[in-house]
Write a structure and sequence with these properties.
This protein is an alpha/beta fold and about 170 residues long. The protein has a single domain (about 1-165), classed as 3-Layer(aba) Sandwich (Rossmann fold), CATH 3.40.50.300. About 55% of the residues lie in helices and about 15% in strands. The chain contains 9 helices and 5 strands, in the order αβαβαααβαβααβα. α2 packs across α9, α3 packs across α5 (about 60-75) and α4 (about 50-60) packs across α5 (about 60-75). It is globular and about 40 Å long. Bound molecules: adenosine-5'-triphosphate, (3R,4S,5R)-3,4,5-trihydroxycyclohex-1-ENE-1-carboxylic acid (SKM) and magnesium ion. (3R,4S,5R)-3,4,5-trihydroxycyclohex-1-ENE-1-carboxylic acid binds near residues 51, 87, 123 and 124. Its cofactor is Mg(2+). Its EC number is 2.7.1.71. GO terms for molecular function: ATP binding; magnesium ion binding; shikimate kinase activity.
Length: about 170
């Protein structure tokens, strides 16, 4: 773990909405004693608006631009854990910045489990779990392409954190 983190410095979580990036990102940061940056809440703090409102009022492209700027700021840091939004992988420039300074962990959680959660505050899903499966088909190759390692989020959180700490 030490050698790989010395090379890359940050830990970055990618994965589908609801895959556990925020929850496991925070827990991993606590275990490492590092700061935690979560791009969706950071965008909300910066704009004073909800992500869903930005999508509905300004459109997805405007949100993606805010997301890229937020990722750029996070990537100025070192020895931090970063949770990205589920769609961050759709912009290659995001992934180039994150990969330059971070070890990328793809959190893979079964879609049926994610679909059983509340999806209403996720604008691209709009409460329709079928869209989750369509998005996953589009994004799975991207998550796999960019990840340094894949962690299956299929156990209790404390167990998954241990797996993550071993993987980094
Ligand atoms: N292994 C797990 N066991 C139990 N609950 C889990 C597990 N992983 C995630 N969860 C729960 O699933 C929900 C979604 O997780 P979380 O918000 O961390 O996902 P996310 O990837 O950050 O989603 P988004 O991309 O929408 O921000 C949370 O309520 C979280 O506590
Ligand atoms: O999957 C997506 O494209 C998104 C996921 C969320 O984390 C937010 O970043 C936003 O709702 C877009
Ligand atoms: Mg999150």
């Amino acid at each position: 773990m030490q050698e790989r983190l010395v090379e890359k410095q940050n830990v970055v979580f990618i994965g589908m909405p609801g895959s556990g990036k925020s929850t496991l990102g925070r827990l991993t940061a606590e275990r490492l004693g590092w700061e935690f940056y979560d791009t969706d809440p950071l965008i909300e703090q910066r704009t004073g608006r909800k992500v869903s409102e930005i999508f509905h009022t300004d459109g997805e492209e405007a949100f993606r631009c805010l997301e890229t700027e937020t990722i750029r700021e996070c990537c100025q840091r070192r020895r931090v854990v970063i949770a990205t939004g589920g769609g961050a992988v759709t912009r290659p420039e995001n992934m180039a910045m994150l990969a330059a300074t971070g070890r990328l962990i793809y959190l893979d959680r079964p879609l049926d489990v994610i679909a059983a959660c509340n999806l209403h505050d996720r604008p691209l899903l709009a409460g329709d779990s079928r869209r989750l499966y369509v998005l996953f088909d589009q994004r799975k190759p991207l998550y796999e392409q960019y990840a340094n390692c894949r962690v299956a989020n299929v156990q209790p959180l404390d167990r998954v954190v241990e797996t993550i700490l071993t993987a980094i």
